[in-house]
Design a protein that fits this description.
Pfam families: BPD_transp_1. The chain is an all-alpha fold. 77% of the residues lie in helices and 1% in strands. The protein has two domains: 39 residues; 228 residues, Orthogonal Bundle (MetI-like fold). The protein has a two-stranded antiparallel sheet.
């Protein structure tokens, strides 16, 4: 009898499995294209990049295994050390100049009682400007005879060579990128600020708290977790920065804007040394993986 009961089990389990497949199968089929694209365009390039980092890549004669030679080239190239310093400097400037701008705008707009929607649209408008137009616009703004230098000369000050002076070049790019991209982060912060219960603010106003007291003791502590999460995301994004450095200055002047990401592009598409470029990418992948783990833990802590 026990044997009969045992033998009756599998068909029952099989039947329930078949019913689940029948019930959820069509839904899983809709996931197949996304999974295929995810594997082909994300994980396969990652795996190929790791393999290329141990090879001398030649698309004509074929690849040959070189072991750790590509990594030795990376660590022996003095210009890569300079690019790492530039990248860290770029990340620092983005943190000091750009990270707090969306927070300030979000808090300021949340305190506005009228025409709040107009100010939201105005803050987000730079995000919709095409990149080509953006670079052309800021080249004109930073020009030696552009509006900024014209204003400085009107005030009796010397003009600033934003694009040709190594002391100003990286900061100039950061200011441009901050102006262009702060709107999207501002909307995220603004949504978080507007989700704070209004009763807290009303109670604070009854107790005599002013605007600055409400911001300090209610607004900022309430979005502290979001600030930490977006900080990690910004560090990950800025560590890969190369687009504006390439388009505006091509790493100049005097390699002042030659970031690590731009150095990878130079190795891959200028020198056509894909093996060394892949090795640099793998090293960056490891560092960004650590930052991603930190971001994941912060996200779980915020959800908790």
């Amino acid at each position: 009898m026990n044997n009969a009961a045992a033998s009756a089990g599998p068909p029952e389990n099989t039947g329930s499995m078949l019913s689940r497949i029948k019930k959820y199968g069509p839904g899983y089929l809709f996931l197949v294209p996304a999974v295929v694209l995810f594997v082909l365009f994300l994980w396969l390039p990652i795996v190929k990049g790791i393999l290329f980092s141990f090879e001398n890549v030649d698309f004509v004669k074929g690849n040959s295994f070189v072991g750790l030679d590509n990594y030795r080239t990376v660590f022996q190239d003095d210009t890569i050390g300079e690019s790492i310093k530039n990248t860290l400097y770029y990340m620092f400037l983005c943190l000091v100049i750009g990270f707090w701008v969306p927070i300030l705008f979000a808090v300021a707009i949340s305190e506005i009682r009228r025409f709040q929607g107009v100010f939201r649209v105005m803050a987000y408008l730079p995000n919709v400007i095409p990149i080509v137009v953006l670079y052309g616009l800021w080249r004109w703004i930073y020009d030696p005879v552009g509006p900024i230098n014209a204003a400085l000369q009107w005030l009796g000050l010397d003009p600033v060579m934003f694009m040709t002076d190594p002391r100003w070049s990286m900061a100039s790019l950061v200011i441009m990128e901050t102006w262009q991209s702060f709107g999207s982060a501002m909307l995220i912060y603004l949504a978080a600020v507007l989700s704070i219960p209004k009763d807290w603010y009303e109670a604070a106003e009854i107790d005599g708290a002013g605007v600055w007291a409400r911001i300090r003791h209610i607004t900022l502590p309430s979005i502290k977790g979001l600030i930490g999460l977006l900080l990690i995301m910004q560090l990950i994004a800025t560590s890969q920065g190369y687009q504006s450095q390439l388009a505006m200055l091509d790493g100049g002047p005097v390699n002042a804007t030659m970031t690590y990401g731009l150095k990878i592009v130079k190795y891959a598409f200028t020198s056509q040394n894909y093996g060394v470029a892949s090795a640099m990418g793998v090293l960056m992948f490891i560092v960004l993986g650590v930052l991603a783990v930190i971001q994941f833990r912060l996200s779980n802590r915020e959800d908790g």
